[in-house]
Amino acid sequence: MGVLIGAAGPPIRLLSVATKLVTRDSSRTANNRAVHSTVFRKVLMAVTGLFLILFLLMHMFGNLKLLIPDGGLEEFDEYSHYLRMFLYPVLPPKFFLWVFRLVLLLCAVVHIEAATRLTFRDYDARMGMGRYLKQRYLAGSFAARTMIWSGIIILVGVIFHLLQFTTQTITVGYLGSVAPHLRVILGFQHWWLVLLYAFWVGLVSFHVYHGFYSAFCTLGARVGAFSAKVIKICSVIVALLVFFGFMASPLAILFGLVTA
Question: Could you give the CA distance from residue 248 to residue 251 in angstroms, rounded to a whole number?
Fold first, then answer.
């Protein structure tokens, strides 16, 4: 800080201000910067999220085969077997199934990685912007603010789900290895498993509700108030479809409508 003394009047104090020149990293190309941008990561989240929602709906309709009267159990087992033998003998047994699983795994990893980076980037920005971003945070929807946490719980549930119904590492209501329909029926005859499953499916539906809406907004479908309302309504419909579609079989089993 210095002092400037003029010919007349009081002395004027000069404040020295530290400045920092921020320059663009010359080692990063335009394509590299685009790939690491917030917009690109949001697009990745949108595309992978919609693919995972599509898989959920396909999986849900497959599970509903258990509710088919007179032969639903056999239909369910045939559906499970068909997935393993799809495109056979053109392709080896289970080849398509493993390719599809790897694609799902890749989508899940990309989705989680993008979500994690965006979350921490948002936290860093909030720390720097202070009160304005705190008010904006409080104004945001509860679903948007808890997406990362519901996603973590969903991931844990997916692992448990695979260990129970795919690998049969975890068995409920039986020992050893049994047919696909028996894994479901013997498991969901226990009320506590249905309750845990309902909680998990509820979180999945909550995640789908906000994710569906955000994905279409990110991809440019929201162009006005009417389109935003349509996307919101579709989000609610898809979320409710996921919840009741996945809970239909467990509840039917619990109340004795479907038996082995």
Answer: 5
Contact partners, residue 6, CB within 8 Å, separation at least 6? 12
Asked if 236 and 203 touch (Cβ cutoff 8 Å), the reply is no
The domain locations on the chain are 37-78+88-156+190-254
- CA–CA separation, 49 vs 41, rounded Å? 12
| Gap between the terminal Cα atoms of the chain | 86
Q: Looking at residue 63, what is its pLDDT?
A: 93
- Decide: residue 230, CB within 10 A, 0-12 exposed, 13-18 middle, 19+ buried: middle
Q: What single-letter DSSP state applies at residue 12?
A: E
Contact assessment for residue 228 and residue 165, using Cβ atoms and an 8 Å cutoff: no
Q: What is the pLDDT of residues 91-100, one digit of tens each?
A: 899 999 999 9
Put simply, whether the predicted model's pTM sits higher than 0.70 gets the answer: yes
